[in-house]
Write a structure and sequence with these properties.
The complex is a heterodimer.
Chain A: H1 5-10, H2 12-46, H3 48-63, H4 66-76, H5 81-105, H6 109-117, H7 122-152, H8 165-172, H9 179-207, H10 209-216
Chain B: H1 2-13, H2 16-48, H3 50-64, H4 68-78, H5 83-107, H6 111-119, H7 124-161, H8 167-176, H9 179-207, H10 210-216
Helix pairs in contact in B: 1-9, 2-3, 2-5, 2-7, 3-5, 4-5, 4-7, 5-7, 6-7, 7-8, 7-9, 8-9
Classes of the chains: A mainly alpha, B mainly alpha.
């Protein structure tokens, strides 16, 4: 393994640019997939039919290998940022929905009844009681998804969306498996995944102060 | 209609059957090694105790943060583009799901059943072989299922990096911007992944001991 440090020094700007692009891809996908997954999870939680259909569709999407998924999207859409985000969102749905549903189903029935008894409507119960109590499980789903999205986003280079895949593929693989850019891409992506995971863990702690109170007491 | 016919032609022109055979050989070899290694290590970890299980889980979680595409490219760049280097990469990625599920499966085997078996005079090996393993089997098959889909997907990426397999066809389609060639690679890759998923989901169901089937039924196939 010999790393060419001079390459890294002369490509500072590219590395930075690809890192920012990668973050944008991951950020946009995460936000969008949460926005899509939570309403679907609520639907699944409330209806048996929706549960079967969503399980089948999101499970099937999850099975499609990422390279094939990007290839399929490439035949439907043009290249670019949003088609890549679409692929990343499709991958995130299964785990996000599954975790949110598990969280919602684990809300104790007496808690739900108490909320209803206090006069909260179904929507209020959902927003003020059920979703907050499901939050730890939802956050676990988001963390798993975030880490895998950082990884899959490296394949977005094939759909012209840039990101760290550019270092790995354009600068590395296509130039006779030039090791240095591949390694840089791998290291930056790994560090990014770990940092996002830690940030989300901290966010979870801040959002669910009652959990800490419970474990302390 | 035109695109479908073009895709079939592209599949034939790009040695589709040959690449499919290579893809299957790569995946099956890697999965077999990952399964034997993962189950052996998983049982060992479960027997050693909580520390080992924790170490393995932490290591697997850390490993998950390295993008598979980068990892397979790194391995192939450092070694060579042959069959066995690719297998090494695929085994590395396919091992964790099986290992983790085997550890969890054995550790979470019903303690009551284990005690009963010990009380009936089964040896430690007897308990492992006739009680713990059967109870862990569905989870182990679930691990094999995840691992197989992962291996087939990563083998495709290895093809893009320059190894053999169906990824080579996708790579050629990408390089020349030809939709039919792209599909001639992507469709068989997807079919292989779906087949593996269906096959091992069946094994998962079939391996559930009859006594446990009723108790577990409601959660199957649901979200």
């Amino acid at each position: 393994m010999d790393i060419r440090w001079s390459w890294i020094e002369s490509h500072h700007d590219d590395i930075w640019e690809n890192t920012v692009q990668h973050l944008q891809l991951v950020g946009a996908s995460l936000v969008l997939s949460v926005l899509v997954a939570i309403p679907l999870a609520v639907l699944v939680y409330r209806s048996r039919t929706a549960s079967g259909i969503t399980a089948a569709v999101s499970g099937a999407l999850y099975t499609v290998p990422s390279l094939a998924m990007f290839a399929f999207l490439l035949t439907i859409f043009d290249i670019g940022f949003w088609p890549a985000v679409t692929a990343l969102v499709l991958y995130s749905l299964l785990i996000l929905i599954r975790n949110a549903v598990v969280g919602l189903r684990s809300v104790p029935a007496p808690v739900r009844d108490a909320a209803r008894g206090m006069g909260l409507t179904r929507t209020q119960t959902l927003l003020r009681v059920e979703l907050p109590l499901a939050l730890p499980s939802i956050m676990t789903g988001i963390r798993i998804t975030a880490v895998s999205t950082v990884g899959i986003a490296t394949i977005a280079v094939f759909i012209g969306a840039g990101g760290l895949g550019e270092l790995i593929y354009n600068d590395g693989i296509q130039r006779g498996l030039f090791l240095t850019p591949i390694l840089v891409g791998a290291v930056v992506a790994t560090v990014m995944a770990i940092l996002i995971d830690v940030a989300l863990l901290v966010a979870e702690r801040l959002l669910t102060p009652w959990q800490r109170a419970r474990s302390r007491g | 209609m035109g695109l479908m016919a073009d895709t079939v032609t592209a599949f034939q022109q790009n040695d589709g059957w040959g690449q499919t055979a290579t893809h299957v050989r790569l995946s099956v070899t890697s999965l077999a090694i990952a399964a034997v290694g993962g189950i052996t290590l998983g049982v060992a970890c479960a027997k050693i105790g909580r520390g080992a299980a924790f170490a393995v889980t932490t290591l697997a979680n850390l490993g998950r943060t390295i993008p598979t595409f980068a990892l397979i490219a790194l391995i192939l760049a450092v070694t060579s583009l042959g069959f066995w280097p690719t297998v090494v990469g695929l085994v590395l990625l396919g091992l964790p799901p099986i290992l983790l599920n085997a550890t969890t499966g054995i550790r979470e085997a019903d303690p009551g059943a284990v005690d009963a078996a010990r009380g009936m005079g089964l040896t430690r090996t007897g308990v492992l072989r006739r009680v713990e393993m059967p109870m862990a089997m569905p989870l182990i098959w679930a691990g094999v299922r995840n691992s197989s889909v992962q291996i087939i997907a990563t083998a495709a990426l290895a093809g893009v990096v320059g190894a053999e397999g169906l990824g080579v066809i996708v790579q050629s389609g990408l390089a020349n911007g030809q939709t039919d060639v792209l599909l001639a690679g992507a469709i068989p890759i997807t079919i292989l992944a779906v087949l593996a998923e269906v096959l091992f989901a069946g094994a998962e169901r079939a391996s559930t001991p009859r006594g446990l089937r009723l108790a577990r039924q409601p959660s199957k196939g649901d979200l």
